[in-house]
Write a structure and sequence with these properties.
Layout (H helix, E strand, L loop, with lengths): L2 H7 L5 H26 L11 H14 L5 H11 L3 E6 L11 H13 L6 E4 L9 E5 L5 E6 L8 H7 L11 H36 L19 H46 L5 H26 L8 E4 H14 L4 E4 L5 E4 L1 H18 L3 E7 L4 E8 L34 H11 L3 E6 L5 E8 L7
Parallel strand pairs: 6-8
Antiparallel strand pairs: 1-4, 2-3, 3-4, 5-7, 8-9, 9-11, 10-11
Helix pairs in contact: 2-7, 3-5, 7-8, 8-9, 10-11, 11-12
Length: 465
């Protein structure tokens, strides 16, 4: 999967983008809760370690038993061995403090119970403003020991210091911030790729498969789409596959019926034409032959419409410039005012027969309603071929421009079959064939009057071959 396709899938309006946003939001919320729980809600602050009473009592007993002159060296040894223990000696009895911390009061009682009888243990003010709250214990050889063994509460904005101020000498990639970011990125990437491939990709394939219609370029026929993805997607895939098979079956039945009817009528028309030749009245014979020719032309259009849904076995490189010039020459030979303005090799990938039918229908429609028809071809900046079939006829009202593309709909309601209007299949055949080639057909007004039929087709090499 290319990065461009992945970025398009991650747009906010797409399913993959919404799943990605949900995953990111969930991870961010989870991380926030964890940080708050472990760093912000750590309200205990400085507190003595669990079961510290025995440890404190042991230190006091050792200091009390040592000679007075050896106390300084003993305190230095304790500072090196237990840097978390703050121990100070003072001569006078410190001022006692009222303590609201029940746990601290209980610790004082436990330490007092571990010492000699009548030991003086109290909560005292810290020796400095920056020192933690301490426990003062009177020594039997004189003086008081101030002890504080604590877990230091993280200072304000501890989360940011934890992230941005690691221990000295720590590589950047090993800092908590970098490790968290890397883990976050890897976790998110795995989840996004999984969601895109396991959930979104089957839906995209299903949407493309559902848009296919029998006769479309690249249609796989009766080949079923693989059932992949979540259970709901698999069930939807089976339903769409069954629906497409029913549509193919109905279209095949309709085509078979119309072809059979057209074939039978063709046989009857041939017999009528032969029998009409024996009519003695010239005027009556002429009228009957004209009606027979009209019926034959209408059936020919009908068969053309049925063949517009044929397969793509004859697709190849087609020189559109040559096709247009040939169509114009055919009409010009019959005395029609048709002109082609183009030149150069304009190649498309498609059916030569289909392209001849497309532009023959358009030119025929033009010469039936106008005095002059002109075909203009040019290449757009998007490497599409724009073919305009322009006439100077009455045009088509805006309200009818879309309706005339429907089968059996004629541009002028007042026209009748006697005016050689046929079944109204011309533009329907054109649109069907052009769309099978990946193009579009639109009807535009021409100033001061007339109609422009604009056909857009992809050049060969732009994904069609």
């Amino acid at each position: 999967m290319t990065s461009g396709r992945l970025l398009r899938r991650l747009q906010p309006g797409r399913l993959a983008g919404q799943i990605t946003f949900l995953i990111l939001a969930s991870i961010v919320c989870f991380q926030t809760v964890v940080l708050i729980a472990f760093h912000v809600l750590d309200v205990e602050g400085r507190r003595h370690i669990v079961d510290q009473s025995d440890f404190i009592a042991s230190i006091i007993l050792a200091v009390d038993a040592a000679p007075v002159e050896a106390r300084g060296a003993l305190l230095e040894e304790y500072a090196r061995a237990a840097p978390f223990a703050n121990l100070h000696l003072v001569n006078g009895r410190p001022v006692a403090e009222e303590v609201d911390d029940r746990e601290f009061v209980n610790e004082i009682r436990m330490v007092q119970s571990d010492l000699w009888a009548g030991a003086d243990v109290l909560a005292a003010a810290p020796p400095t403003d920056r020192a933690p709250g301490v426990m003062a214990i009177g020594l039997r050889k004189g003086g008081y020991a101030l002890v504080s063994i604590s877990q230091h509460r993280k200072p304000p904005r501890s989360v940011w210091r934890w992230l941005w101020q690691p221990e000295p000498g720590t590589p950047f990639l090993l800092t908590p911030w970098a490790l968290s970011a890397i883990l976050f990125f890897l976790s998110t990437s795995v989840l996004v790729l999984w969601a895109s491939n396991a959930i979104v990709e089957p839906l995209i394939r299903l949407a493309r498969h559902a848009e296919q219609f029998p006769g479309d370029v690249g249609d796989a026929g009766d080949k079923a789409l693989p059932e992949q993805g979540p259970l709901e997607v698999m069930e939807l895939t089976r339903a769409i596959t069954r629906m497409q098979r029913r549509i193919r079956s109905m279209i095949a039945a309709r085509t078979h019926v119309l072809a059979a009817v057209s074939h039978d009528l063709k046989t009857i028309i041939t017999r009528l034409s032969l029998r009409s030749e024996f009519i003695a009245d010239d005027e009556l014979r002429h009228k009957m032959l004209r009606d027979i020719d009209l019926m034959d032309a209408m059936l020919h259009k009908n068969l053309q419409y049925l063949r517009s849904e044929s397969d793509t076995a004859d697709y190849s490189q087609v020189d559109l410039d040559s096709v247009l010039q040939t169509v114009v020459d055919q009409f010009a030979e019959t005395g029609k005012r048709v002109r082609y303005r183009g030149g150069g090799r304009q190649m498309i990938f498609g059916s030569l027969t289909d392209m001849q039918r497309v532009f023959s229908n358009l030119v025929e429609n033009g010469v039936n309603h106008a005095d002059k028809v002109e075909i203009i071809i040019e290449e757009t900046p998007a490497r599409q071929l724009q073919i305009d079939v322009v006439d100077d006829g009455p045009g088509i009202p805006d309200a009818q421009k879309e309706a005339v593309f429907e089968p059996f709909v004629r541009g002028e309601i007042s026209r009748t079959i006697g005016n050689h209007s046929g079944f109204g299949l011309g533009l329907s055949i054109v649109r069907s064939l052009v769309e099978r080639h990946g193009g579009t057909v639109t009807l535009l007004d021409r100033a001061p009057h007339g109609l422009i039929v604009r056909v857009m087709l992809p050049r060969a090499g732009d994904g069609r071959d």
